[in-house]
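Illustration: Ferredoxin-NADP reductase.
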Amino acid sequence: MARAAVSGRLTWRVAELADAADLTKSARSLVFDVPGWPGHLPGQHVDVRLTAEDGYSVQRSYSISSASDGERIELAVQRVADGEVSPYLCDVLAVGDKIELRGPVGGWFVWRATDQAPVTLVAGGSGIAPLMSMIRARASEGSRVPFRLVYSVRTPEDVMFADELRQRAREDGGLDVRLVYTRRTPEGSPEPPGRLGVATLNTHGWPAEFTPNCFVCGPTGFVESVSDILVALGHDPRRVRTERFG
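Result:
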């Protein structure tokens, strides 16, 4: 059983793009149908492989942003101007086109609905992707575990899943969303832009004495800074789980 599961995760599968939509001006949601997909835990990722006609191939890892849903998964891809993979996924790949992917990958940066500890989610930019999988899985499981999301972005236009987050925060009393803008705030906001710091995490994350699970995802510098702050605030380092990129 265990060997079969591992083998399945390492198998390259053909995935067909079923739907796509812009999340921001530089990010896109891609929904794939993946025959034989074994399911995934919220927080896991996949490896995506593109192969040119001359045989040259390149692969990148992308977090899954959807809850487990049969043989369908969603990826949130941030376009990197000089990248080899993201411009193709965001600007060229069309519904009906196929790529290769394998997974799910990862077993540490995951949330399980059986864990009843409160959850603090901290995202920087496109680091929201695996945290959205956790938020969606919580809803699909009917979990009452309280979630707090602190999401740092440059401007209001850079908020990925903006409409969904607003709706979920409005309709779900167990989900609190705090947006932090580092470059420009919404018009009329009384707060100036600024980096995510101790005061915000102390106010909008769960207190250390509640022994929450903390999931932090974003660029390396962001993740290291947030992790250091959480530990300084008294959080158990074993409960601070990180995923970084860049």
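Reading the tokens back as a structure: The longest helix spans residues 128-141.
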